[in-house]
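A quick aside before the break. I want you to see a complete sequence-to-structure record at least once, exactly as it would be stored in a machine-readable document. Don't worry about memorizing anything.
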Amino acid sequence: MAFPTHHSIRLYCGVAIFGASVMLTPARALDSEPTPPGTATAALPVFKDPTAALREGLAGYRAGNFDASVKALRYAAEGGQSVAQWKLGQMYAAGDGVPHDDIKAFQYFSQIVASYDEDASDPREIPFISSAFVSVGNYNLHGLQSLKRNPRRAFQLFHYAATNFSDANAQYNLARMYLDGEGVPADPRQATRWLSNAAEKNHMEAQALLGNMLFQGLNGLPRQRHRGLMYLTLAREAAGDRPENRWIVDLYDTAIRTADDFDKQAAHIELSRQLNKRSR
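That is the input. The structure line, written in tokens, reads:
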């Protein structure tokens, strides 16, 4: 069964999406410039098939040969290789070996979402498909320069990936939408449920948010300071010193300053149990 798209949303190339002025051209036209009359054209690379092109594209990427990698990955993407579509989406989203371009990233991720068939997809490709659902969800949630925000569509995509793929990033984003009442009525109980699911998969941001909620007794949760401190400790350890994770460090520092000896001892016991579960 193909993933159902919203009646007002068309996720395929060559049409305006969400009623916005984003025109997505076929993948083979990406980055191509018109050839002036009389100019000789370079021979296109020849690949045995899309699968072979995917292998060459990934090998070129690992070797740092981005020009050859992108050509091979485009060929594979045109041939329906979802891993190639995902890799190109990631590269354009991060500006990794190619100029940063969220529109192109959005197109490649959208191709995966539009063509996903749960009855026919290779199970080995599910992590890439799930990641594409989350990426398209985030683009809908935040919008692009020429793409109107669509929180409701974002919710649908996160919910599908959270439920069907058990994707921790989708579960975390879904929880945030329930907390903020974004695209869906606010529901702290549902938010806690999805945060717990993501936190159990060692999702750092989910552990930090859930830990703070438990430690402080926020959003109607009964205060469980030792469990909250346990999750905050796990999140703090994963956060390291990266600037973008400063908010996690601040939550942990606040909790550890106000925790008493019982909280710390109980959190230590809970942390040992959690780490034992990981090692099994």
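Two observations worth writing down. The radius of gyration is 22 Å. The mean pLDDT is 86. We'll return to this after the break.
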